[in-house]
Amino acid sequence: MNNFTKLGFIMATVGAAVGLGNIWKFPYMVAEQGGGAFVLIYLFTIVFVGISVLIAEMLIGYLGRGDVGQSFEVLATKNKYLWGKSVFMAFTGLFILTFYSVVIGWIVRYIFLSFGSLPVGIENSKELFESFLSSDFIPQISFHTLAFIVVAFIVIKGIKSGIEKANYFLMPVLMLIIFGLFVYSISLDSFSTSLSFIFNPDFSKLNSDVMLSAVGHAFFTISLGMGTILTYSASLPKKTNIVKASFWVAFFDTAVALFAGVMIYAFLFSYTSEANSGPGLVFISLPVVFESFGVLGNFLSLIFFVGLFFAGISSAVSLLEPVVMYLIRVLKTSRAKAVIYSGLFFYIVGILVIFSSIDSTKEYLTWGDKNLFDWIDHITYLLLPLGGIIMSLFVGFVLPRELLINTMKNQMNKVVFNVWIFNLRFIIPIALIWMILDKVFS
Ligand code: TRP
User: Fold this and answer.
1) With contact defined as beta carbons under 8 Å apart, do 102 and 110 qualify?
2) Where are the transmembrane segments (predicted)?
């Protein structure tokens, strides 16, 4: 198999991590989940849980050298068959893709919109987005189809020539765009309002829903608990420092989310004091800001949405790759066929996701207080921490101690190593299990 180069690996992993989760999802979740308290739990989880599990997941791929199922199976000293079943987590990626691809479709629509007249005023913009979501299913399906084709095409090309190459270009461009817009937003009066909205925690808003959303989102945003990182690490060159790599990934990912969040709210608050516009947030607030810049605004809008499209594609690709790797092995089939089989699943369910927001069909695709879109999103936030628990326990208890020490001795000192293992064995599993049970039974 073709290996990544070291830089290529960082690029691809950062590409997987930095995605719609950072720029589309994080900002509206902050508003929905009560502001600063959510952000604090999210940051806490990245630092004390995320990085430890990230290193664990990288290690499993790095040592196992196979797809998700294979790596667990090869490395387990006993109960190989059972550990091999951990491959179920790769399928979480297909669930995420059902809505991910639809949202990439919305982005394509806004790329086209950038060439014409942008909405004037927040109310107008809101109406434009909401009517698109609730009635325009044909364009939504067409753009979702386009997203599906682009993702399938890149994954068929494989890790080296598809994924690595695409990311070399996509990631730096996106980061420049976000950072540029952030720097501009500093000049707005509303910049400080935005900062305090994101960083001032109000602990009375904390409850089990907020906790789960924050922890689930921390996993989602660094692409943890599903086998993306594991699958990519299986093509790591030997002698890579995975501790360093993990820090870089967590750092870039968090930086992009925070820059994007502060920038988007600074823009929003310069027009309205209302923060909560749900999944429409970036689509509603930014075009209005861009509109006020005249033609320059059209150009900014274009580069922003193109950047977001790139971020989405490099993450979507990473959501599909783990299942594809697995299917190639178990079905003994070609990469192209594996991509088509798994791609069709998310493509078709994605169409149902679209219809779950369309006025005339949504009642058939809504159960309780959530439509299909919300349910998938919600269940994902339980599945990813579950994957995290399995990986933590596996590295903490199952991997032979000697192998662990030999691999990590040049990357961590003894104290850090022991803290890391203790964290994986006890703190992380107990905290996550407690949180999941609390959620399921509350
Ligand atoms: N991290 C990506 C985002 O923030 C989404 C993603 C890609 C992901 N690969 C993943 C989420 C694996 C969970 C697991 O948009």
Assistant:
1) no
2) 7-24, 36-56, 87-112, 137-156, 168-187, 210-233, 245-268, 299-327, 339-358, 378-399, 419-437
